[in-house]
Amino acid sequence: MTSQSQGIQQLLQAEKRAKDKLEEAKKRKEAREEAIAEIDHYRLQREKEFRNKQTNVMGSQGNLSAKIEEQTTETVRNLTSSYHKNMESMMKKLLSTICDINPEVHPNFRHAV
């Protein structure tokens, strides 16, 4: 009988150790879940702050970018207008300089007698 009660005591102790391990595992799992939730909350908070800062910085850069784009468009428009206005006269000047040749003796040329 004593061997049976020792066996029962061992089984009860093993059951208690198993129950303790399960409770400890549950606590670790809960702690892990809490840590993950806290990390997610912190990450969302930091991402929100980052987006706010990015919006502030990019918003001002967006205005600057739009202003530069507008100035560039205006400059291109002015250059195109100037090109169309002066193209004809410049082509005439260029062709006349190239094609109208007046042969004359250079002033430094000494005529050998």
TrEMBL record:
GO molecular function: ATP hydrolysis activity; proton-transporting ATPase activity, rotational mechanism
Region named Disordered: 1-30, 54-73
Entry keyword annotation includes Secreted: no
Matching Gene3D superfamilies: 1.20.5.2950
Signal peptide: none
Listed GO biological process terms: synaptic vesicle lumen acidification
Entries under Pfam families matching the protein: V-ATPase_G (PF03179)
Keyword annotations from UniProtKB, A to Z: Hydrogen ion transport, Ion transport, Transport
Entries under InterPro entries matching the protein: V-ATPase_G
Composition skew (Polar residues), residue ranges: 1-12, 54-64
GO CC aspect terms: synaptic vesicle membrane; vacuolar proton-transporting V-type ATPase, V1 domain
Biased composition (Basic and acidic residues): 14-30
Family: Belongs to the V-ATPase G subunit family.
Record-linked NCBIfam families: V_ATP_synt_G
Function of the molecule: Subunit of the V1 complex of vacuolar(H+)-ATPase (V-ATPase), a multisubunit enzyme composed of a peripheral complex (V1) that hydrolyzes ATP and a membrane integral complex (V0) that translocates protons. V-ATPase is responsible for acidifying and maintaining the pH of intracellular compartments and in some cell types, is targeted to the plasma membrane, where it is responsible for acidifying the extracellular environment.
Protein name: V-type proton ATPase subunit G
Organism, scientific name: Balearica regulorum gibbericeps (East African grey crowned-crane)
